[in-house]
Amino acid sequence: MASWLHRILLAGLLLAAYLFAWTPARTAWVTHLATPVLEYSTSPEVQVSARARVHTIRVQAPSGAKLTYMAPAGVKFLLPGLFLTVFVVARPRLGLFFGGHLFLGGVVLLLAVGGVTGMPGGLILADFVQQYGIDAYSLTMPTLVLVRSLKTQNT
Question: What is the pTM of this model?
Fold first, then answer.
C-alpha cells in the first residue's frame, strides 16, 4: 500500500512540475529560442508565425511545404511519464525519457532550419520526425522500460 501511495505522490509531483515549471519553460522555448532561430534563418518569402501560448510555430515555405513545430516534451512526454512513474517498479528513468524528448525537439528544429535555408525536403523530414518519430519514441521507451522492469522483478 505504501508503495502505491509513494508512486501516486511521485506522479502528482511530476504533474505539478510539468504544469508549473515546464509549461512556462516550453513557452520560453518557443518565444526565445525556436522562433528567433527560425526567423533569423529564413528568407522573406518564408512565413514564420509563432503561437507561444499553445507552444507552436507554423512555418510555410513558398514551395508549399508546411511545418507546425511544437515545443518538445509536451503531452507526449507527460502521459508516458506518468505511466512510468505509477506502473514501473524499478526506477522509471524519467530523466532519460525527458532528455530524449528534448533531443528530438532539437533535431526537429535543426531540420526545420535546414528546410527554410534550402535543404531539399528539410521541412518534410522535420514534419515526419515531429509526427512519427516523437510518437514512436513516446510509445517505445516506456514499453521497453516496463518489460525490462518486469523481467528484473521476476528473476
Answer: 0.90
